[in-house]
Amino acid sequence: MVRPRDADPVGYGDKAPITRIGRGLTAFWMVTSLIAMSSLTASLASAFTLFLSGDTNNSITDPAQLLGQRAAVLEGTSGAELAKQRNMRIVPAQTLAAAIDHVLMNRAEAVIFDRPAIRFHLKNNPELAVLLAPFTLAEQTYGFAFRTGDPLRTPLNISILRLQSSGEVKTISKRLLD
């Protein structure tokens, strides 16, 4: 079939890319638009599903979300200082279990305490309806205190360094805390 030169094959204009660069940019734009619209549709579908299902899971995923929130902290721990530095409202607790109860009873939005201790507590109490946040507020290390000149100091340091360099510390932590 032969078309007249002025005929419009699509019916809504006469502009179309002709060069390779133009066609490449057009193809790229079409794929990008398709991905963007698919993402938007998926996000809206997820949001509507969560809204209609009544799921009110307000997980804290970023430290900035804690600003001005109520944080359960164990009295006398570094968690109290971290909460003060981040302008959180402190809800004091005597034990980790009491701090977690504050969250479960909606008296606090978060617990600020040592991550390994919380992981161990959650492993031993899987029925608790709380999640560990995917971030830490501060990196802290643990240490051992010895009297000056104690003969165990050097062998313990060497053993710990060997365990760390071999990856055994992570294996032990994973086994005990996950």
Provide an overview of this structure.
The protein is mainly alpha-helical and 178 residues long. The chain has 6 helices and 3 strands, in the order αβαβαβααα. It has a 3-stranded parallel β-sheet. It is elongated, with a radius of gyration of 29 Å. It starts with 19 loop residues before the first helix and ends with a helix.
Give a nutshell description of this structure.
The chain is mainly alpha-helical. Helices cover 48% and strands 7% of the residues. A three-stranded parallel sheet has the order 2-1-3.
Properties at a glance:
single chain, 178 residues, mainly alpha, three-stranded parallel β-sheet, elongated
Q: Figure out the total of helices.
A: 6
Note poorly predicted spans: none
Largest sheet: 3 strands, parallel
- Secondary-structure-based class equals mainly alpha
Q: Determine the fraction of residues in helical runs and give it as a percent range.
A: 40-55%
Would you tell me the overall average pLDDT? 82
Give the radius of gyration: 29 Å
Strand order of the largest sheet: 2-1-3
Q: Separation of termini?
A: 70 Å
Strand count: 3
Give, in order, the helices and strands.
HEHEHEHHH
% residues in beta strands = 5-15%
The geometry reads as elongated
